[in-house]
Specification:
CATH architecture of the largest domain: 2-Layer Sandwich
Distance between the termini: 47 Å
Number of domains: 3
Structural class: alpha+beta
CATH topology of the largest domain: BirA Bifunctional Protein, domain 2
CATH superfamily of the largest domain: Bira Bifunctional Protein, Domain 2
Strand content: 15-25%
Bound molecules: zinc ion
Helix content: 25-40%
Shape: elongated
Mean pLDDT: 93
Number of helices: 16
Amino acid sequence: MTPLKALGGTSDILPEEAQAWQQLEEKARRVFQLYGYQEIRTPLIEEAAVFTSSLGEAAEIVTKQMYLFEDRGGRSVALRPEGTASVVRALIEHGLDKTSPLNRFYYGGAMFRAERPQKGRRRQFHQIGVEVFGSASPHQDVELLCLLKRLLEEWGLSGWKLKLNSLGCREDRAKIVEHVRATLAPQAAKLCEDCRQRLEKNPLRILDCKEEGCRKLCEGIDVYEAVCAPCKEHFEQVKRGLEALAVPFDRDPHLVRGLDYYTRTAFEVVHPGLGAQDALGGGGRYDDLVKLMGGSTPVPAIGFAVGIERVLMALESAGPKPPEPAARPVYVAAVSSAEIPNALELAEQLRRAGIAAFANLEERPLGRQMKQASSMGARFALILGADEVKEKMVMVKDMQTGEQKKESLADALRKVNHNA
Ligand SMILES: [Zn+2]
Ligand SMILES: [Zn+2]
């Protein structure tokens, strides 16, 4: 049989790399706790309607990128292409907005999009995100962006930029769409092929087309011009709040985000280390989504998601970091195969005391065992021979100095614990 391989666009995260993932996740969890967010875990697979109803049938994620299939019961299901829709579905299903007027959630995990795999774009990718339900206040937007800034700082990222815009309310959005369509329609022939189609279905997407010609045509367009007065006032308060708290941002008149459900504040974090696809993550307000997805009352909401692979790429672009010191286990050696069960038992004793331990379980010369101990970075080796076992003692070898001394088990434990 030919050896099997992971599917294109998916990858294994091998132990060496997984360490960096764990650190990102742990740091994120700490920041979320500081801001009072609670974890929510939703299924990776949902009824397709969860996404078609929220993202919009015309959204490119839905039409081109969603893993959509019929399950064995003939239901139309999808692998989640993003996190927000599932969280909203869960909020409504469990009536969480009824039990608490304000809900702050975080989530993390794999998302799926059937895209052509390329650098920074995987078919299975991973996001960490937050959602806040129950506040329409511009101060909530400010606090959420403070959290985002804190998260990026905690991860050790520098050089990122926050791009900010307001898309206005539902009514404004219709005006914005018309404004963009009316401005571009007379020059439709100069748009790229994709954008000529977008002009009918989804004109806002033209604003983030990367084609030079399309960019030029869009230069004069500012979607904010079509935003109503109350929405403008909301946005002004967001900007003032960010300035007061020293959260740097750039207003981007073309920032519309890819999804239909955003209202008012929308943002994106970009990083120069990522190349053309430079977004680390983004988000915005979605005040109508809960109602749109069948909620009985409107619940104003805001959230963001950050791509973990993107964050790792951005961190790498800043140059190699010294690896964090790995756990240094105590090595437990057995002089002959007769002492292997004793080595195993001693290692268990160490672990019960909270000390990482590696027991030699193979029959092999002591010299080879000591070589393995140093390659693991062990600080101490505890060596058990026939005499030690009989005397209930252990030979403690300091791997740095090479010194060794026979000690009681209790003394040995104290020593390695003290130096752990
Ligand atoms: Zn408005
Ligand atoms: Zn274009």
